Amino acid sequence: MLFGEVGPLGGAAWTAPAVRSGWIQGLRTLAQHPSALRFLAACGAVDTIFSLQGDSSLFVASAAGQLLVHILDLAMRGPARGRCSPQACDWPACAQKIVCHIEDSLCSIATPQVTQALNVLTTVFGHCRGLWTQGLWVRLSPLVARLLEKDPVPASHSLVDLLLSVARSSVPSSDRGLWETLAQTLSHLSPTQAGPLALGILKLQDCPQALRTQAFGILLQPLACVLEAAAQAPGPPGLLGGAAGDPMTADTLLCSKSACVGLLCCALTHLGLLQPLPQRPSPWPQAPLLGAAVTVLRLCSGSVAPTSDVGGRLCAILVGCGRVQRAALDFLGALSQGAGPQESVTQVFSVLLEYLMSPESSSMVLKKAFQATLRWLLSSPKTPGCCDLDPRTQLFLRELLPVLQKRLCSPCWEVRDSGLEFLTQMTRHCGGQAGFRQALLASEVPELTKQLLQDPESYVRASAVTATGQLSSWALLAAPASPERPGAQQKSLLVELLHVLCADSEGFPRRAVMQVFTEWLRDGHADVAEDPERFVARVLQAASRDPDWEVRAQGLELALVFLGQLLGPRGSHCPCAVALPETAPPGTLAQALPEAAPPGTLAQALQVLCRVQLFEFAFRALFDCDRPVAQKSCDLLLFLRAKAAPCGSPQEAGDSPNVASVEATLQRWQAGEQGQPLGYLEPGAVMAVLRSIDLEGLRDTLAESSDHVEKSPQSLLQDMLAAVGVLGENEADCY
Amino acid sequence: MKLYCLSGHPTLPCNVLKFKSTTVMLDCGLDMTSTLNFLPLPLVQSPRLSNLPGWSLKDGNAFLDKELKECSGHVFVDSVPEFCLPETELIDLSTVDVILISNYHCMMALPYITEHTGFTGTVYATEPTVQIGRLLMEELVNFIERVPKAQSASLWKNKDIQRLLPSPLKDAVEVSTWRRCYTMQEVNSALSKIQLVGYSQKIELFGAVQVTPLSSGYALGSSNWIIQSHYEKVSYVSGSSLLTTHPQPMDQASLKNSDVLILTGLTQIPTANPDGMVGEFCSNLALTVRNGGNVLVPCYPSGVIYDLLECLYQYIDSAGLSSIPFYFISPVANSSLEFSQIFAEWLCHNKQTKVYLPEPPFPHAELIQTNKLKHYPSIHGDFSNDFRQPCVVFTGHPSLRFGDVVHFMELWGKSSLNTVIFTEPDFSYLEALAPYQPLAMKCIYCPIDTRLNFIQVSKLLKEVQPLHVVCPEQYTQPPPAQSHRMDLMIDCQPPAMSYRRAEVLALPFKRRYEKIEIMPELADSLVPMEIKPGVSLATVSAVLHTKDNKHVLQPPPRPAQPTGGKKRKRASDDIPDCKVLKPLLSGSIPVDQFVQTLEKHGFSDIKVEDTAKGHIVLLQEAETLIQIEEDSTHIICDNDEMLRVRLRDLVLKFLQKF
Predict the structure, then answer these.
(1) Cβ–Cβ gap A409/B319 under 8 Å
(2) Which of A66, A77, A560, B450 has the greatest CB tally within 10 Å of its CB?
């Protein structure tokens, strides 16, 4: 027996799942060499692993299954072993035992046992690459096929996973019978169960066309039924080329609300996942699918009046169903990637508008509707000859903006948030297009967005910050003075955002401000370009005091952008070689450098960095208690050092009197005493300090995972010492 | 059991239930949609309304031009608005014993019934229902009485003339029964007949039935009613809500096991979810005010307005509306706002707990304290001094035919900056707006109706499982405008019975049992005999005494002592003769054993025949028949009394006696 005479099962500790999990991990570490197998077999560990497959803890059960696969793989990975015969009389005893166990489980009448066997096999075919897996499949496939004869098919989910795992392995190249099994499975499973298998089959790179057609048919069936049920009159051949919908699918759709919703959601999700794939079926029925998505959405909103009895029942089931609405909107969004007939696209925009306007749309449905609308707007064709929106889209925009305006006033914060997200994305992509600019400026949306900076909900404030930042970048925020205060000077957005950064009690708006500022600096926003040095100094000062680590990390990102603009991007060796005024976009910081010409550029840049107190910020961040901040700071300082090193000379550091005091301060910071300020730094002192700190070493330390200390041998030793407690004399033994 | 349906309006019901010798009126709703046919009553002289052209027939005949005026293609009656009363001819309303009121909207016809039909019974309602109902009636009377109208149009009601009128006047029903509004005196007299009740209180009606109000979750003090006898239970569900608003939640459990469930007062807008509508309301309000426009909300002085104010309380700061004044104008505004704060026991749990903090249950108290919400009895007086625009005004009446709202429609209707937001679902907003056309102000329709929708009804019926459901006919088919929406109707098994105005429904339900009590001394004298395990019987001789619908078995009076013939008995003193009782027999006769017994006793030549009801034992020699059936045995012999007695005794051997 393993670990003691009575074995692990006898111990009281065995009742703790963590102990059982640890035991499995221990075995896994042990089983690295074929000779370990003999030991495991001899001590009966394999039987214990079999029993642990049904453990009450899912973690333990899953680990036991994986360990079995590992042992099987180890056993079969003999040096000269090629493809094994299915009879497997020459299989190693250990492998033989495991495979027999799997065979027994597959024949079991208890579904959990079948599930366990199927899960083990799924892992085998998913992870083991040896040729022996082909032999294993030949041996086990009849047992798997026999499962299909049962009604209902046991453990159908696991069976689907296994078949897909086998289909993705090297087995199909040797066993064409697999395709038959897959086809059989598709026809045996219920429409809901068959969906994931159909999707998996269609994702396969290489698979017979007949099987693909069958699988695609299964995914299309529910939507075909919906189209058929909602049709006012027999129309053109729909999704299935005019063939009638499968009665079984229709029965599932109508038998209960939950079944109908489940099946439709699966079909919509699966087709949505399939749409962007290169191996999606061709021809792709874009127009009927658009029609089906629109019909489903109209059934859900009750705005379609089916004449047939089935249509009426479907309408009663689906009306107001948020789950189907969300799935259909996602699917509709995915379909935006393909073209569609003019009529269908008009219908799409009209149904999207209907959803965006409807007071009945829940906040989640609205979010999805906004997302789908964005995708359709971005994919709509541009007017030939110019990069502006086409007239139909412009018309839609004019109808959409009043709706957006109303949504931005919604009492539900989720709705305001989704509206702002939509506006941000729309502006990001279309901010330069005249049609969009014109429509937006004519609406009250920019003004409303600015008002939402004062929203009581922090998520909305954050989204409003991002949206106003984006609007401002495209000069879309220049609203006239408000009617209540004619002539009053509008406060600059930069000042407002700085106020948010300094005063907002929640982290999300402050993070958003930092992102906007970083973007503004990168893109040379006009407000920033006026005095970038002052801007960076103010932002870094606010960010350095921020209690939120993401704000501090974003501050370093902004500092990095600033450095890039001063010293040239990463990768170029020496800033002296970078002709800053020519390469930088207009209005960026480079222009602000008074004399940006070599060889004084670096010195001047360092002067600027010292003036904005970037070093104090970066050095503080280096010892930040949050690892990502420290890592980022380390990267920044390394970048700076690399940039400066070839140009600087050791004597440049001089014997600046304050190097020692800086180093002393940094040491105190490292020790956790961060109260003391660094004071004004000379560029020379900075370079000297940079060279003296072991940044590489620090980077390596920071790269370790947070539990590296706990996992180290030293920690194990400490644990052991702690366990023996007061028996001090044992300390020597341990060493 | 019969149901007399006096109202065709599903949410303003008025039905009479005859059940076990009691006549119970269920609600007393007043259909006010008739007022939409009348011209608005302006508080301030309106040149526009007073200069509307008179209507004339196609042939130019203008004899109706004093009564009917034309406005933007619609014809209106220029007279004091009139209301469509419940049917008064279907049943003699003086025979109504009690009226049960379910909520304050469903009692507006009460003065017409209690004051003009010979009604002498009692009205039962909860305290908030009565108090807020009084406010609604007071407001209505005030709105109409403060704008006296010289003329009263009646010519147009003539059936021959009505036929010539354009729609909707042509199609208006029962116009001859339309009545002008009652007076405050009638209101006070009607309300004095009300007896206050609390939830779950059991009220005996003549000993025949017991009625109990249950919380219905729709409004302050709103109730459903249980009307039950010992063996029958009728539930009356009217205006209930499962949403979490301000009132106490609905009591569903007590509705279980009803024989009949009468279901009225479902949502009038089944496709509109109240949450979505509140969102629309807030968004549109904010948009209008931000643009410098005013918002007008025509509403009742109680009910949804409390929830709207609460919602706005949370919303105004986030929407930057803190500086916008909110005005609530109604003759009863002050009382309504204050009443709502004192009915703590009728509020939902959350609001009840606030009272113990102590805090006012509704946040409109804070809005008033901070001067964000101001209330006035009318537009005259203080209001005109404080009035500041842009603003939001809540005022009545939602029909837009009377009340202060008429003034604001005239004042703000011409500017497209202003918005009127309809939140009350009782009136079609298009019809309400008709006499104000052409109208520049924006109109938003956000009907907020928190009453049960069809999904909730379906769940409720599954939960409480009544044997029969009775409902207005409108609920048994999809709405006419959405005939494909099969989900917008009641779907239950067996299908619901439907009723319409002026219909009498025999409820599909027969009474089978009646409870009778036995006096203790009589019960003591009984000697039960067990005839089979668990079942004992005893004979009882008693006098059945019935009074106030209660039945009691009392011991029979002792036989009169012989009085020596001196005192003559009066006829009224006659008591039933108590003869010596024969024992009662029970049990069955096993034919085979009976035949064997007969043979043992010397009878021979016995034949047995099976009949549909039992057996015939034929004693051929004796020329005698013994007919044995489930509940009788006959011995038929030819004048041989000796033989009959012998045979009888043999039969009796197989039966138990007590």
Answers:
(1) yes
(2) B450
Contact B484 A483 (CB under 8 A): no
Beta bridge partners of B499: B472
Place of tokens 């907003």: B429
Looking at CA atoms only, how far is residue B229 from chain A in angstroms? 39
Tell me the pLDDT band of A392, cut-offs 50, 70 and 90.
confident
Please tell me which of the candidates A302, A455, A483 has its beta carbon nearest to residue B318: A455
* Model confidence pLDDT, tens digit, residues A592-614: 333 333 446 777 888 888 888 88
d(CA A363, CA A326): 10
Q: How far apart are CA A464 and CA A452, in angstroms?
A: 6
Predicted local distance difference test score (pLDDT) of residue A481: 45
Q: How far is CA A353 from CA A297, A299, A414, A444, B280, in A?
A: 12, 15, 18, 19, 16
First to last CA, chain B: 40
The model's pLDDT over A208-232, given as tens digits with 9 standing for 90+, comes to 999 999 999 999 999 998 888 887 6
Cα A200 off chain centre by: 21
Does A591 reach chain B within 8 Å, measured CB to CB? no
Contact B233, B257 (CB under 8 A): yes
Going from the C-alpha of A154 to that of each of A116, A147, B205, B268, B330, the distances in angstroms are: 12, 7, 63, 49, 69
Token pair 């005494």 is found at B545
- With CB atoms and an 8 Å threshold, state whether A359 touches B484: no
Nearest to B265 by CA among B3, B7, B4, B1: B7
Instruction: For residue range A286-315, list pLDDT tens digits in order.
Output: 999 999 999 999 999 988 888 788 888 888
Q: Model ipTM?
A: 0.74
Query: Residue B255 contacts by C-beta under 8 Å, 6 or more apart in sequence?
Result: B214, B224, B226, B235, B237, B261, B460, B464, B466
Chain A residues inside the 8 Å CB shell of B485: 302, 315-316, 319
Q: Is A496 on the interface with B (CB under 8 A)?
A: no
Query: Which of A405, A411, A483 is opposite residue B282, by nearest beta carbon?
Result: A411
In a 10 Å sphere around its CB, with 0-12 CB exposed, 13-18 middle and 19+ buried, how is residue A262 labelled? middle
Q: What are the residues whose beta carbons fall under 8 Å from the beta carbon of A639, sequence distance 6 or more?
A: A560, A563, A570
Helix (H) / strand (E) element for B369: namely helix B364-369
Strands (E), A208-347: none
pLDDT at res. A581: 35
> Within chain B, which residues score under 50 in pLDDT?
569, 571-572
Chain A residue numbers with beta carbons less than 8 Å from the beta carbon of B324 are none
Convert B394-424 to b/e letters by CB count within 10 Å (16 or more is b): bbbbbbbbbbbbbbbbbbbbeeebbbbbbbb
**What pLDDT does A576 receive?**
41
**Measured between CB atoms, does A406 come within 8 Å of chain B?**
yes
The mean pLDDT value of chain A amounts to: 83
Dihedral, A548, A549, A553, A558 alpha carbons, nearest 10: 10
Please check whether residue B477 touches A, CB under 8 A.
no
A residues 275-334 lying closer than 8 A (beta carbon) to B: 302, 304-307, 312-313, 315-316, 319-320
Asked if A417 is an interface residue toward chain B (Cβ–Cβ < 8 A), one would say no
Residue A149 sits at the vertex; the CA angle it makes with A148 and A154, to the nearest 5 degrees, is 55
Q: Which residues of B touch A361 (CB under 8 A)?
A: 276
A112 cis-preceded (ω within 30 degrees of 0): no
CB-based contact B287 A405, cutoff 8 Å:
yes
* Angle of CA points A422, A329, A187, to nearest 5°: 150
